[in-house]
Amino acid sequence: MGKNSIKTSKSAAKRFKITGKGKIKFHRAGKSHLLAKKNQRRKRSLRVAALVSKSDARRVGRALAIR
Q1: Does residue 8 contact residue 65 with C-beta atoms inside 8 Å?
Q2: Which of 3, 5, 44, 65 is the most buried (most CB within 10 A)?
């Protein structure tokens, strides 16, 4: 490894994916347990993936060794 290479954080690599346009995609938390008290609309919205905000994208990108 050269002195300028950055290692990918393996924990971040399992949680985030890069879209075709280079944005960072993730799945929201809160869909694993205690689902009886959450209404159907809330659970349905937790199903879909979301994009990381611009303010967090730089930090997540560094963990993924892409930015």
Answers
A1: yes
A2: 65
Neighbours of 16 (CB within 10 A): 20
Domain 10-63 class in CATH:
few secondary structures
* Other Cβ atoms within 10 Å of 18 Cβ, number: 12
What's the CA gap between 60 and 53, in Å, rounded? 10
Q: Cβ of 45: how many Cβ atoms within 10 Å? A: 11
Query: What are the E-state strand segments in the chain?
Result: 16-18, 24-26, 50-51
What would the two tokens of residue 2 be?
Answer: 């050269």
Q: Is the pLDDT of residue 67 over 80?
A: no
Q: Hey, which bits of 27-64 come out as E strands?
A: 50-51
